[in-house]
Design a protein that fits this description.
GTP Cyclohydrolase I, domain 2; globular; 2 domains; 7 helices; 286 residues; alpha+beta
């Protein structure tokens, strides 16, 4: 993992450095991080990924001026395909959104078009952008994903190691049965740390699968092992997906993490064997 933590493409990022805030529109603030950095570590290539999916971001601090100088505020939804060459570095994303604050735009549509153009150029693939009034954003209605989702956080386990351990999943299917089941699980105990700044990232992770039953205690121990792990949100979710497939060889798998916001943005990576689009399901912590 040190290979991509020290990659040259990360050395020029504003993340982890003191920066001046710009309040005049400036798309040059956006910075890209190649997805290949952690995918090389997982032996993945963009033309042969074991999953489909997307990264869904929500921006809660977007504002600009109309042609008369009056402030406008909105909530933004951003969707990036997991096949895009780059992910958008989050601090640069925040600085970029902040640059709209004192710039004049004629309409919601103009702002949406600017956002779509700039973010697509950074990601290297088309980004989908939707803007909502702050009192009407259906995508952010609190939703528990599904009424039949089972929380595994009540499992009575002993934990004494908080370093990432994929091999824990080697015991995940030792349940005494080979029966194929379908389960929808959630844990609110996922915590990882930013790859660059070491700041904590908190999430609820939803795992839906079809296959031989997974031991909930083992799965929870595995998820808790990310507690001192340093990696970007998207990378953690892809690692969880790949580990579950490696050790459990599931017929179907979906991993969806809802991270709490920082700096007015939350990031919600969604990876699946068969579903392209993330559901709309904000958690209470978001």
């Amino acid at each position: 993992m040190e290979t991509y933590q020290n990659a040259k493409s990360l050395s020029n990022l504003t993340l982890g450095k003191t920066t001046e805030y710009c309040s005049e529109y400036n798309p040059k603030l956006l910075q890209a991080v190649p997805r290949s950095l952690n995918r090389d570590d997982l032996s993945l290539t963009n033309n042969k990924l074991p999953f489909v999916g997307e990264d869904v971001w929500y921006g809660y601090e977007l504002s600009w001026l109309n042609n008369q100088g009056k402030p406008v505020v909105a909530v933004a939804e951003f969707r990036f395909a997991c096949t895009s060459p780059n992910l958008v570095e989050s601090k640069s994303f925040k600085l970029y959104l902040n640059s709209f604050n004192q710039s004049k735009f004629a309409s919601f549509d103009e702002v949406q078009q600017r956002l779509s153009h700039d973010l697509s150029a950074t990601a290297g693939a088309q980004a989908q952008v939707s803007l909502y009034p702050v009192d009407h954003c259906p995508a952010l209605a609190i939703n528990s994903m599904a009424p039949d989702t089972q929380c595994i956080d009540h499992e009575d386990i002993r934990v004494d190691n908080y370093q990432y351990q994929a091999q824990i999943l080697g015991n995940a299917q030792k349940t005494g049965t080979d029966k194929v089941v379908e389960q929808k699980l959630v844990s609110h105990l996922l915590k990882s740390n930013c790859l660059i700044t070491n700041q904590p990232d908190w999430a609820s992770v939803y795992i839906s699968y079809k296959g031989v039953a997974i031991n909930h205690k083992v799965l929870l121990q595995y998820l808790i092992s990310f507690r001192q792990h340093n990696e970007f949100h998207e990378q953690c979710v892809e690692r969880i997906f790949c580990d579950l497939q490696k050790y459990c060889q599931l017929d179907e798998l979906t991993v969806f993490a809802r991270y709490t916001r920082r700096g007015g943005l939350d990031i919600n990576p969604f990876r699946s064997t068969h579903l392209d689009t993330a559901p709309q399901a904000r958690t209470l912590r978001q």
